[in-house]
Design brief:
about 250 residues; five-stranded mixed sheet; three-stranded mixed sheet; NERD domain-containing protein
C-alpha cells in the first residue's frame, strides 16, 4: 500500500473507531461491521495488524463496544436483518416524503439473485410509480469498494456483478405484470442506485438503464416529464401490490 493510500485508510479506520467508541448503539454496530469488512479487505484478520496498531496506539475500546467486534457471524446476521428492515422502513418513508404524495412506492421481492449471499447483494428492490412514469429500482451496496461504470459494464473491484441485466429483467417483469392488469402496454424503466462510501467512476452511461447514487435518486425520478396522472399511479401501485411475485 502506498503512503498516500495508507494514510487515507488510517483516517477511515480512525473515523470508524471514533463511531464505535462514541456513537449511538446503532452507529457503533454499523461501524464495527464496516471496520471488520475493511480490515478483511486489507488482509488484517484481527486487531494485531500493523495498520490497526498504528491507529490504536495505547487507546482501548470500552468493554461494551469492544464486544461488538467479537460478535459471532450469527449475531451479526441477526443484527443486519433487523437494521435492514428498519433502514428500509425509514428510507422508504423519507423518499416518499421527498418525491411527494403523487408518487407510490411498492416493494418488489428480492428472490432469484444469482449472487445472493455475496458482498454484492442487492439491498432493496422496489417500483417507484408517479407522474414521471414507472421505475424498477435496485439499491445496491458497494461499501468501500470502487465502482467503475463503462457503458453496459459495471465493475466492482475486479468483479462484474450483473446489476444492469438484473435491473432490466426486473423492469420487464414489472411491465408484464402491470400491462396485464391495465390492459395496455405499461412502460417500466430500470434504475440502479449505488449506496456506499467507495468512489464511483463513470466512463460512459449504459443503454436503457438509468444509474445514480442513492442521494440523487429522488431527483433522478422527479426529472422525468409528467406521463401519468396521480390517479393512474395509485391504480398501478395497487395492481403491483396485488400481483407482484412472492419471492
Amino acid at each position: 500500500m502506498t503512503d498516500e493510500g495508507d494514510g487515507k485508510t488510517i483516517r477511515v479506520v480512525a473515523e470508524l473507531l471514533d463511531q464505535l467508541a462514541n456513537g449511538t448503539t446503532e452507529e457503533a454496530t454499523q461501524a464495527a461491521e464496516e471496520l471488520r469488512v475493511l480490515l478483511r479487505e486489507l488482509g488484517y484478520h484481527g486487531q494485531t495488524g500493523p495498520l490497526v496498531r498504528k491507529v490504536l496506539g495505547p487507546w482501548e475500546l470500552p468493554t461494551d463496544r469492544a464486544a461488538a467486534l467479537r460478535s459471532t457471524p450469527s449475531d451479526w446476521a441477526r443484527r443486519r436483518r433487523a437494521e435492514r428492515l428498519a433502514r428500509r422502513k425509514h428510507a422508504g418513508a423519507a423518499m416518499h416524503l421527498r418525491l411527494g404524495p403523487a408518487w407510490q412506492l411498492v416493494d418488489w421481492p428480492l428472490g432469484g439473485f444469482a449472487w445472493a449471499g455475496t458482498e454484492y447483494d442487492v439491498r432493496e428492490r422496489f417500483l417507484a410509480i408517479g407522474p414521471g412514469g414507472v421505475y424498477a429500482v435496485l439499491i445496491v451496496d458497494h461499501g468501500w469498494s470502487r465502482v467503475v461504470l463503462s457503458g453496459d459494464i459495471v465493475q466492482v473491484d475486479n468483479k462484474r456483478p450483473p446489476y444492469l441485466p438484473e435491473a432490466r429483467r426486473t423492469a420487464r417483469q414489472a411491465s408484464q405484470v402491470l400491462s396485464g392488469a391495465a390492459g395496455r402496454p405499461v412502460r417500466v424503466d430500470p434504475v440502479v442506485a449505488f449506496d456506499g462510501s467507495g468512489v464511483i467512476s463513470v466512463h460512459g452511461l449504459p443503454k436503457d438503464c438509468m444509474v445514480s447514487g442513492t442521494k440523487d435518486l429522488d431527483r433522478l425520478l422527479l426529472a422525468g416529464k409528467s406521463r401519468i396522472s396521480p390517479a393512474t399511479a395509485e391504480k398501478l401501485a395497487a395492481a403491483a401490490g396485488r400481483l407482484r411475485p412472492t419471492g
